[in-house]
Amino acid sequence: MVYRSFATPGRTAVPVRAERAPSREAEAVAPRRAALRPDAVGRTGMITVLTALKPLGASWLRVLFALTRRLPGLTGLGPLESVHFIRWSVVGSLPYDGPPQVRERLPHRLLLWETVYSAPTEPYVETFVYGVGDKVRKIWCTSHGFPGTRSVTGLAGYIGELSVAGAHCWSAHPAATVRTILSALDVAREHRYLVRAARTTGPAEFAVVYRGFLARRQGDL
Amino acid sequence: MNATCPATPFTVLTPVVPGEEQALRDALGQLSRAGASPFSRVAETHVARWVLVSGAPWRYRGLPRRTRPLRMQYLLFTSTANRPPEQHVEDLRTGLRGDADAAWGHCVGYPGYQESAGFRRYLLHNRLPVHRWFAAYDATVREVGDALDLRRRHTEFAVRTQDVDDLRLQAAFLAEFAEDGT
């Protein structure tokens, strides 16, 4: 297995890398050897991956996605606290807009996966492997070439080779991690009660309320 | 209408006019170098990106050899906003303005941002369904921004008041935060 280095979203915004332009058809279909380099906007990393689905993969995914829509807990991603957003789409056909577009059929149904996250990339993939490996496996076992979730290097290599670079990316909160945002929202929820207590109670009582807040929220500040 | 809703994904795939692929790459590169992204003008949008899809990006070891590359190149647009899709499309039109034309203007059938109905019809026609979706939070962009600012102020306040007595603590709290909350 080839060792791969991982880029980590930095603190400052950097221009995203340009899309590779295949010059020949042969190059276009050749397996790639790109390292996993997410697009980074501040501390926000973004990865887009297109995988080819096996013949019954799309049907399995529709059942699985319908199930997890009804029972979101099955997705199991909430506790990760490093993921802002994830989307999965099964792409069976391409939109047609008339000439000069060429009508074309996809050789396979595709799974489009896009993740927006805030963590160094390697620990992020590790979290997928060790934290929610079984859930990831249930989705991606439908794709050709999926190496499983036993090896971080194997999964990172798979994602790295199949990821498509962004041409322009933007995040409203590039400096904030998911953990920071969740903490801030928790603090904001308690804040209104603190303000009310400050207005309606005496100094001693307010001090008890405020120090209770600090004790509960010290990890969020 | 300025309704917000839980964070909602929006995905659009549009074919690039043959021969204009490089011009599109250049235009998107220019947007990235221009400083403030035009998406900062689009209401209630958490993240947005344009991705160029070409060749056979799904190609990998183990895939049957019969796979063939795409004959066209496609522009993939993804965003997450606290808006229903129809409203988000209008936000994109009024927020991006000429920058929408700089990108989608290289795509087949794009009518231009000045044609409101056509713009809406075009993006919704080329929309891809999102079958599964996860969001860590449903707060709006403004709520997140306000919460981050509040958290910073609380942190500074806690440091500043760690040695004061109860009376001064309450007075300082009211001076700092009385204008906030109810």
Measured distance between first and last alpha carbons of chain A: 42 Å
Which range does the strand content of chain B fall in? 15-25%
Output the CATH topology of the largest domain in chain B.
Alpha-Beta Plaits
What is the global morphology of chain A?
A: elongated
Strands in their spatial order, largest beta sheet of chain B: 1-3-2
What would the principal axes of the Cα set say about the shape of chain B? elongated
**Major sheet of chain B:** 3 strands, antiparallel
Helix-strand pattern of chain B = EHEEHHHEHH
Uncertain stretches of 5 or more adjacent residues of chain A: 1-33
Can you tag this structure with a few keywords?
heterodimer, A: 221 residues, alpha+beta, 2 domains, 4-stranded antiparallel β-sheet, disordered N terminus, B: 182 residues, Alpha-Beta Plaits, 3-stranded antiparallel β-sheet, 41% helix, elongated
Question: What would you say about this model in short?
Answer:
Chain A is of the alpha+beta class.
Give structural notes.
The complex is a heterodimer of chains A (221) and B (182). Chain A folds into two domains: 25-162, no CATH class; 178-220, no CATH class. Helix content of chain A is 39%, strand content 16%. Chain A contains seven helices and five strands, in the order H-E-E-H-E-E-H-H-H-E-H-H. Chain A has helices at 25-29, 57-70, 121-130, 133-140, 152-162, 178-200, 203-217, and strands at 39-41, 44-52, 83-91, 110-117, 166-171. Chain A is elongated. The relative contact order of chain A is 0.18. Mean pLDDT of chain A is 81; it is low at 1-33. Chain B has two domains: 8-125, Alpha-Beta Plaits, CATH 3.30.70; 141-177. Chain B is built from six helices and four strands; from the N terminus they run E-H-E-E-H-H-H-E-H-H. Chain B has helices spanning 21-33, 85-96, 98-104, 116-125, 141-160, 166-177, and strands at residues 8-15, 45-53, 74-81, 132-135. Chain B has a three-stranded antiparallel β-sheet, with no helix packed on it. In chain B, helix 1 (21-33) packs antiparallel against helix 3 (98-104). The radius of gyration of chain B is 23 Å and the shape is elongated. The model of chain B has no long low-confidence stretch (mean pLDDT 92). The chains are: A alpha+beta (221), B alpha+beta (182). At the A-B interface, helix 1, strand 2, helix 2, strand 3 and strand 4 of A face strand 1, helix 1, strand 2, strand 3 and strand 4 of B. Strand 5 (166-171) of chain A pairs antiparallel with strand 2 of chain B, so a sheet runs across the interface.
